[in-house]
Amino acid sequence: MKKIPVTEQNKQMKQSASSGSVPSSVAPGPDAAQNEDDPMAGLQADLDRFRDLALRSQADFENYKKRSAREKEDAIKYANSSLLERLVGIIDNFELGLAAAKEQGADSPIYSGMVLVQKQLSDLLAENGLQPIEAEGKTFDPNAHEAIAHEPSDRVPEGIVVRQNRRGYRLKDRLLRPAKVVVSSGRAK
């Protein structure tokens, strides 16, 4: 079927209406005036559909830009997390060495030097948003603590951390590493 431009279709319809013959594409009937408006109604419906599509696409693009900006901000904010996670393991070993040096004598120059280095490391980590999680004596929180054992205790109520075996850390508002703790199971039965 050959496509005829809309203006030519309108001319043909007017000519046929004036001559009294009805083109094969238009059915005769009382709705002849409405059939002339149908191309406009169809075009208006298409226009509305494309406007809606354009608005949706624009909203999707705005959401994409916001999500990308948020992801970029998070990537920058937590870029050092893998480095700090590895450094935390080294700090644990350093604290074990510090405890051993303290047993040899708290007055020794090696112990004093190690305490200064530990303070510098702690300050550096705090500047980068790393905060230690102190668990001992606190209520057990599965979001920040990892229970490795339960221990009966007459002095400590049930659900309270008795001992911290490994310190946990938070990086800004995220958990970097949970604290490994021993939790009280209440009075022995």
Q: Overview of this structure, please?
A:
The protein has 189 residues and is of the alpha+beta class. It folds into two domains: 42-77; 81-184, Nucleotide Exchange Factor Grpe, Chain A, domain 2, CATH 2.30.22.10. 54% of the residues lie in helices and 16% in strands. The protein contains four helices and six strands. It has a three-stranded antiparallel beta sheet. A hairpin with a 2-residue loop joins β4 and β5. The chain is elongated, with a radius of gyration of 38 Å. 7% of the residues are buried.
Most strands sheet: 3 strands, antiparallel
CATH class of the largest domain: Mainly Beta
Low-pLDDT segments, ≥5 res: 20-33
CATH homologous group name of the largest domain: Head domain of nucleotide exchange factor GrpE
Arithmetic mean pLDDT: 83
Can you give the helix content as a percent range? 40-55%
User: Which CATH architecture of the largest domain is right?
Assistant: Roll
Strand order, biggest sheet? 1-4-5
Structural class by secondary-structure content: alpha+beta
- Total beta-strand segments: 6
Radius of gyration: 38 Å
- Assembly form of the protein: single chain
- Spell the H/E element sequence: HHHHEEEEEE
The domain count comes to 2
The first-to-last residue Cα distance is 93 Å
In terms of DSSP E residues, the strand content is 15-25%
Tell me the overall shape. Answer: elongated
Number of helices: 4
What is the CATH T-level topology of the largest domain?
Nucleotide Exchange Factor Grpe, Chain A, domain 2
